[in-house]
Amino acid sequence: MITENEQDELIFDFLEGNLSHDEEEAFLILKEENELFNRQVRLWQNTYMKEPLPSVELLERRLIIQPGRHTVNFSSRIYMVLIIMLTYVTLPGDGVEKYVPGAITKVTHDNTPIPEETADQASKIIFDCMEDQNIVVKRTVQTQSEVVTKDDRPINQPAVLSKPDLEALFMTEQLILKKIEVRKGETPKPTSVAARKKWSRREMRMIRQKLWQDSDTRKANEFQKGNVPYVVPLNSNNF
Amino acid sequence: MISESQYNDAVKSYARNIFRFVFKNLKDKDASEDLVQDCFMKLWQNRASVDSSKIKSWLFSVAHHAMINYAKAEARKTSLDNAEVNLLSTGSLPEPDLKELIEKSLQELTPLQRSIILLRDFEGYNYKEIGDILKLSEPQVKVYLFRARQRMKDSIKTLSAVL
């Protein structure tokens, strides 16, 4: 006579495949002969679950890592390194004027302080820097005197440029671009972006650098890092 | 160390298994999906330390522990609500079939017993593999499995007699 627990253990071992061949045969005979025991076996069989797998395609799609989306691939890394390098490449004219960290004043090569320029002047300086190093100082001085005589706006106050001023700035830029084309020894191409459809590498570099110099974040980073030469920034509020 | 492709293969191969394992326990689709996502997120975060040949058992182990934590938190949050819902639902219960009885009996098990049953029945793990996942010895797994099935059997018997 076996107890209920022993009977359960026997059925469990049979269903789990833990019985030997002879024990299995004896078990099957008992099951056939004893209806009560057979019912117990059926009850135990109900505790074994087999179901079709649920559909989780959407979940899988979300979990799978898309190449290039979560990781930085090789080309992206190269591009990032190039951008960082471009940030620190100095244009002609760099070092002529610079900010001293902490004091935030502009000085020349021989540490002579330069007064703050107006926004008009800043624009001119940027374009001059892009043009040629030798002209930078001259033009800066000239422009400064012009600004002082023409305009009594307080220093650092953003200038509101009129339409003719903006057009003049645009023309200056166009002239510079034309000069660049001639210097490269190539046949002059139409200077209009729409006509050329794309910028040259040098132009892209200059424009990118100009944009970087505009940003206040860039300025703050330069100061934090230390004595990095910095070109007089173009105030974006003026455009 | 697990590569990106190995990780993606693991998602394709095991996501539905882990989901079913969790869903059978929690009975909440959204929570189960979140939990599966957490498991795979942990796998990706720990890809440097996880053995690529043991990804499946690692995932089940993490899923089991996360599930227990979730169940504990939920039990604390909604113990009163559940009591009310159960009272209401038992009032208008439709005639259950065997599948429902089995589901009900499964829910009456402890989380550990439930995990063992699910790993055994759905994933086909042997006692040793279940022991590795749940940090139990082989004899312990066998005893837990026996008690779990015995409890389920008694539960099915009682429920079918009552209903």
Key traits:
heterodimer; A: 239 residues; mainly alpha; 2 domains; three-stranded antiparallel beta sheet; 11 helices; 3 strands; rod-shaped; B: 163 residues; Rna Polymerase Sigma Factor, Chain: A; Arc Repressor Mutant, subunit A; 7 helices; globular
Would you write up a description of this structure?
The complex is a heterodimer of chains A (239) and B (163). Chain A has 239 residues and is an all-alpha fold. Chain A is built from 11 helices and 3 strands; from the N terminus they run αααααβββαααααα. Chain A has a 3-stranded antiparallel sheet with strand order 1-2-3, with no helix packed on it. In chain A, α2 (21-33) crosses α3, α6 packs antiparallel against α7 (133-150) and α6 (119-131) runs parallel beside α8 (163-183). The longest helix of chain A is centred in the C-terminal third of the chain and has 21 residues, at 163-183. Chain A is rod-shaped and about 110 Å long. With 163 residues, chain B is an all-alpha fold. Chain B folds into 2 domains: 1-93, Rna Polymerase Sigma Factor, Chain: A, CATH 1.10.1740.10; 94-163, Orthogonal Bundle (Arc Repressor Mutant, subunit A). Helices cover 80% and strands 0% of the residues of chain B. Chain B contains 7 helices and no strands. Chain B has helices at 4-26, 29-45, 55-91, 98-107, 111-121, 127-134, 138-162.
How many beta-strand runs of chain B?
Answer: 0
Q: What helical percentage do the residues of chain B reach? A: over 70%
The helix content of chain A is 55-70%
Helix vs. strand class of chain B = mainly alpha
- Fraction of residues in β-strands of chain B: under 5%
The rounded Rg of chain B comes to: 17 Å
Helix-strand topology string of chain A = HHHHHEEEHHHHHH
Q: Give average pLDDT of chain B, whole number.
A: 82
Please name the CATH architecture of the largest domain in chain B.
Orthogonal Bundle
Query: What does the oligomeric state look like here?
Result: heterodimer
Mean pLDDT of chain A: 64
Describe the main β-sheet of chain A briefly: 3 strands, antiparallel
Greatest interface by residues involved: A-B, 24 and 34 residues
In whole angstroms, the N-to-C terminal distance of chain B is 53 Å
Given this structure, which CATH class of the largest domain in chain B is correct?
Mainly Alpha
The CATH homologous superfamily of the largest domain in chain B is called: RNA polymerase sigma factor, region 2, helix turn helix motif
